[in-house]
Amino acid sequence: MQEKIIAAIIVSAIAFFSIYAFTPILIKFLEKRNQAVKDANKKGNVMIPRPGGISILIGIVASEITLYFFFPISEILAIIITSILGFSVGIIDDRKVMGGWFKPVTLAFCAAPILLLGAYDSNLDFPLFGSVKIPSLYLALVVFMIPVTGNTLNSIDVLNGIVSGFTTIASFALAISLFILQNYEIGIACLCLGFASLAFYKYHKFPSRIFPGDSGSVMFGATYGVIAIVGGVEVIAAIAILPAVINSFLFLSSVKRIVEHREIKNPTSHTDDFKLKSTDDNHAPITLVRLLVAKKPLSEKQICNEILKLATFSGVLAIITAFMMEVKI
Amino acid sequence: MNGKIYGFIFVMWILMLIGGGLVVMFVGPLTFGIDVEPIITSGVKVLIALILIFVWVFILTKVKNWIFKSQVKS
């Protein structure tokens, strides 16, 4: 146990401080190269450097590789490779505008290391009722899970600090759940994701100094998805990101097809004091942000706080679910 | 302020618990006798799982519409 505690402290520190130290350097580098995009929710022409995914990649991979030296197991290797592949998919989308099909299809291939390394257990565990063995169906679930988590977290990257703050809360909830279930190695791997996203949140929170881009948000999602699979906590992981699942669900049920967010009508517009309000266009999709501002306009910061509160609520539900895993009816 | 959205998340959580229970207690152990091909049994299980997902999405769509309409009205 002492070795596990030491490993947890070392890799968490690497994940946090590498991003904390490297991101300001990346911000200056991107600014010099004029790699910045307009922040659509700020008055005037505020340009924000992007993508910050490179910084997140360094933090997550450095900490997970260190963890692999402590625990050389195939599950951690699968996390490292899938994270790098998730980043690669995102960076292609950052550099070149791809169609709506691109991310789901390519992210499905990112699940290959999990299957090739055999880093999964084909039992699907449910709270209170036990587990169900679905060997063939589980393979499909593995291939399906990475695109779902990758796209789900990518789809909430709409305002300053949401995706990094949301990933921080969900990852810590999942890490606590893994510790409750005594899956310590993967729990520590999940801590790396939590501390990496926490360090990035410092620069991404309102008002943002850097945007993660698709490379950052897709990588967050892919890493989260692979941890859920190799840790055998798929159901708990889904519960921890329920607000983001709701966002995707609202979007898909109103648009009824998979499209890039650039291709759709904006679900919100601005008031004179630059608060966000629900658009009057009935054909615009319903999203979580639109639902939050349907009653009255809110500032960007207020919306971020509301979404992070929702994330905390679902994180608590995830931890309760982890306790319920130990109880059998 | 957003109690209905919290309620929506809670409903989703409950539906996941109930769905999981149905899968483990009824769908998982489902068999049609030893002379039936395992692939047919798996196919039926997948079909039942898909029906459960359809019911899940249908209920959530209704809840979503109700929340959005009531948010806009107020």
What structural class do you assign from the helix and strand content of chain B? mainly alpha
The largest sheet of chain A is: 2 strands, antiparallel
Shape of chain B: elongated
| Beta-strand proportion of chain A | 5-15%
Using DSSP, what is the number of strands of chain B?
A: 0
Question: Percent helix among the residues of chain B?
Answer: over 70%
Distance between the termini of chain A: 31 Å
In short:
The complex is a heterodimer of chains A (329) and B (74). Chain A is mainly alpha-helical.
Brief descriptors of the model:
heterodimer; A: 329 residues; mainly alpha; two-stranded antiparallel sheet; 6 strands; 65% helix; 6% strand; B: 74 residues; 2 helices
Could you characterize the architecture of this molecule?
The complex is a heterodimer of chains A (329) and B (74). Chain A is mainly α and 329 residues long. Chain A has one domain (2-241). Chain A has 13 helices and six strands. Chain A has helices spanning 2-32, 53-70, 74-95, 102-109, 112-116, 135-155, 162-180, 184-204, 213-230, 234-240, 242-255, 288-292, 300-325, and strands at 36-38, 47-49, 123-126, 130-133, 268-270, 276-278. In chain A, a hairpin with an 8-residue loop joins strand 1 (36-38) and strand 2. In chain A, helix 2 runs antiparallel to helix 3 (74-95) and helix 10 (234-240) packs antiparallel against helix 13 (300-325). In chain B, helix 1 runs antiparallel to helix 2. The interface between A and B is medium-sized, with 37 and 31 residues.
